């Protein structure tokens, strides 16, 4: 019986060993499967993180491009408005000597006291002046006694001031200045007192 028991015990032990080895194998397979699933989840998370990072990068790129485009639109719109405002600058600058001649002619005709001649030239002068004003030309109002500003006036000479009030101020306006919109197209030429 001992031999039989020993062989039974051996068989039983072998079965247990086989069961243990099968159990170990199953546990190993389960552990490997769990690791694979966790690894896949880790890869998936890192892939998701990568996709999120890429999305944020593209979103930032898009926002910058959009902001740049908005700035471009604003800048070109502003430039276009400025161009329209000053598009006539060359023509207006060419017309200023004609306007000056009209002013001188009006002063001389007033001295002649010929009312019919004065009325006719005055009509033409007013129409010409209104047309230029409608196109954006504005005369700069500078008169004797105004403070001289080098940014706004062009001093052609300095003379001794006729009175103490006119020292450092404008004594005479030789040529009228004009603006087209906000831009000065001809600075007034003045004489200052010292």
Automatic annotation (TrEMBL):
Homodimer. InterPro entries: GrpE (IPR000740), GrpE_CC (IPR013805), GrpE_head (IPR009012). One of its GO terms (molecular function) is adenyl-nucleotide exchange factor activity. The keyword Cytoplasm applies. HAMAP family: GrpE. GO terms for biological process: protein folding. Participates actively in the response to hyperosmotic and heat shock by preventing the aggregation of stress-denatured proteins, in association with DnaK and GrpE. It is the nucleotide exchange factor for DnaK and may function as a thermosensor. Unfolded proteins bind initially to DnaJ; upon interaction with the DnaJ-bound protein, DnaK hydrolyzes its bound ATP, resulting in the formation of a stable complex. GrpE releases ADP from DnaK; ATP binding to DnaK triggers the release of the substrate protein, thus completing the reaction cycle. The keyword Chaperone applies. This is Protein GrpE. GO terms for cellular component: cytoplasm. Keywords: Chaperone, Cytoplasm, Stress response. It comes from the Bacteria. Coiled coil: none annotated. Its main location: cytoplasm. It holds the Pfam family GrpE. It is found in: Cytoplasm. Residues 8-26 have a biased composition (Basic and acidic residues). Signal peptide: none annotated. Belongs to the GrpE family. Residues 1-27 are annotated as: Disordered.
């Amino acid at each position: 019986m001992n031999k039989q028991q020993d062989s039974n015990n051996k068989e039983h032990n072998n079965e247990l060993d086989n069961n243990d080895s099968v159990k170990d194998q199953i546990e190993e397979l389960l552990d490997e499967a769990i690791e694979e699933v966790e690894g896949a989840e880790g890869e998936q998370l890192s892939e998701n993180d990568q996709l999120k990072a890429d999305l944020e990068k593209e979103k930032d790129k898009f926002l910058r491009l959009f902001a740049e485009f908005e700035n471009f639109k604003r800048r070109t719109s502003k430039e276009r408005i400025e161009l329209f405002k000053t598009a006539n600058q060359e023509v207006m600058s060419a017309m200023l000597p004609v306007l000056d001649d009209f002013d001188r002619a009006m002063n001389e005709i007033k001295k002649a006291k010929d009312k019919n001649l004065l009325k006719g030239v005055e009509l033409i002068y007013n129409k010409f002046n209104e047309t230029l004003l409608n196109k954006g030309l504005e005369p700069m109002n500078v008169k004797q006694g105004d403070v001289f500003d080098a940014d706004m006036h062009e001093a052609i000479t300095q003379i001794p001031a006729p009175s103490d009030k006119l020292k450092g101020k404008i004594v005479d306006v030789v040529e009228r200045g004009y603006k087209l919109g906000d831009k000065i197209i001809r600075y007034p030429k003045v004489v200052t007192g010292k």
